[in-house]
Design a protein that fits this description.
α2 runs antiparallel to α14, α9 packs across α18 and α18 packs antiparallel against α19. Strands 1, 2, 3, 4, 5, 6 and 7 form a seven-stranded mixed beta sheet that branches. The N terminus is likely disordered. The chain is an alpha/beta fold and 424 residues long.
Length: 424
């Protein structure tokens, strides 16, 4: 995503401090973060601005940051919750929300949001992954990425092909555009580096009406919807020939380099990689992002979302000022500034529609449109405590089929056994 260049459109909004109720003097909020606000780089600098502007709007309130490796934030919170030594706010990446919700380490935010207007609630894009089975919300995103299909608009335009609406359209486009070094489709199922199994394969099974997990958390892979998707993946390699077997098994960074070289017409990846791919691509190559094509007409694939959340642990010392801090970070002015300075996707629909964000480049990238679809059609799936294990089992199941090591039905049974063993 390109940075916003027309900052003057939001200058007055960003310059004014947000109106907030006064908070208790001398309050210190402890934040656990993987980013260091004293560090170098635009992400750290933008975080420092969030803290400074919050403190300026709430005299006497300070934010103290404890920097923790991102993979350790979840485990450390689980340990801290048992010991009763929790922060006031913690950053959690979306796949790591489910273990915290299951362990009851987080406060639901619904009561704190009761004062929000209906318009404000509708404006903020929340993720189903941050909710429990009763629909209670345990975190608000401050950063988001959407997984979908990068498509080479220049190649499609030259061939006179519209953007694929369905999987059949995607196959037809891939076959027409595949020529010389250009592959029709690129998607990696290398489970060590790729999340395509849970970002594309799983939502597609859901779109077909299939079940992935039982209510007790056990695998339920063996069903007609999974069978259809596994057969489709096999055909991409062995019947349609638009996905090379080595691409399907390749580490995702290596496959991304193939895409950057200009040799993939359709590529499955997340929005956070779009700017990198576009900036490093050959002259004339132009990429845009759309949701994954519908499994068939009338059965759209739910939009896959991930991102960093801000949550309040149970037994936090200062939950009210902590929530005000979260409100500040997810507010429209801060989201607009982050989108401009750091290239983040905003979590506010109003920011996505603002002319300062909807630049010509971001429109070409398809970002305003895909954000709206993310708000209205997100994947609603109750994630297990270990989503890595689910991605691993599903991805390896696809590998067995596309490599012709197992039949589809044998792979489904094998995948169920594999996941049930991994989750123990």
């Amino acid at each position: 995503m390109t940075r916003i260049t027309r900052r003057t459109a939001l200058g007055a909004l960003l310059a004014a401090p947000l109106a907030r109720p006064s908070l208790a003097q001398g309050t210190t909020i402890e934040l656990w973060s993987f980013l260091d606000p004293a560090g170098r780089g635009v992400r750290s600098e933008e975080m420092a601005h969030v803290i400074r502007s919050y403190e300026a709007a709430n005299a006497g309130v300070r934010v103290r940051t404890n920097v923790i490796q991102w993979t350790e934030l979840g485990p450390q919170l689980l340990r801290a919750s048992r010991a009763g030594q929790v922060p006031d706010v913690v950053m959690l990446y979306s796949p790591y929300m489910a273990p915290q919700v299951a362990a009851n380490t987080l406060l639901p935010l619904d009561d704190m949001m009761r004062g929000w207007s209906a318009a404000d609630r509708d404006d903020l894009i929340t993720m189903p992954i941050a909710r429990d089975r009763q629909g209670r919300l345990y975190g608000l995103p401050w950063e988001m990425r959407i997984f979908g299909m990068f498509w080479r608009t220049d190649l499609f335009a030259r061939a006179g092909i519209a953007v694929p609406a369905t999987l059949d359209d995607m196959v037809a486009a891939g076959r027409r555009l595949q020529e010389g070094p250009i592959q029709g489709l690129g998607v990696s199922f290398n489970t060590a580096t790729s999340t395509a199994a849970i970002e594309w394969f799983l939502p597609s099974v859901v779109a077909f009406g299939g079940m992935i997990l039982r209510d007790d958390g056990a695998a339920a892979f063996a069903n007609p919807a999974t069978e259809r998707m596994l057969g489709f993946c096999h055909d991409l390699v062995h019947r349609h020939g638009i996905l090379k077997l080595d691409s399907a098994l390749m580490p995702s960074d290596d496959l991304q380099n193939v895409c950057i070289a200009g040799n993939i017409a359709q590529y499955f990846q997340g929005s956070h990689r779009l700017s990198t791919v576009q900036e490093r691509a050959p002259a004339g190559a132009q990429f845009s992002l759309v949701p994954f094509p519908a499994v068939e007409s009338g059965k759209p694939t739910p939009v896959s979302l991930q991102g960093w959340h801000l949550s309040i642990p149970r037994r936090a010392r200062n939950p009210q000022p902590a929530f005000k801090f979260i409100e500040h970070w997810t507010s429209a002015p801060i989201q607009a500034r982050q989108a401009g300075a750091a290239g983040y996707l905003p979590v506010r629909r109003s920011v996505a529609r603002d002319p300062a964000f909807a630049t010509e480049q971001n429109q070409r990238f398809g970002l305003t449109a895909i954000l709206e679809q993310a708000a209205t059609r997100p994947l609603n799936f109750h994630w297990p405590e270990n989503s890595d294990a689910l991605n691993d089992a599903l991805g390896r199941m696809v590998q067995q089929v596309v490599s012709n090591r197992m039949s589809v039905r044998d792979a489904m049974a094998w995948g169920e056994r594999t996941y049930n063993e991994l989750r123990r």
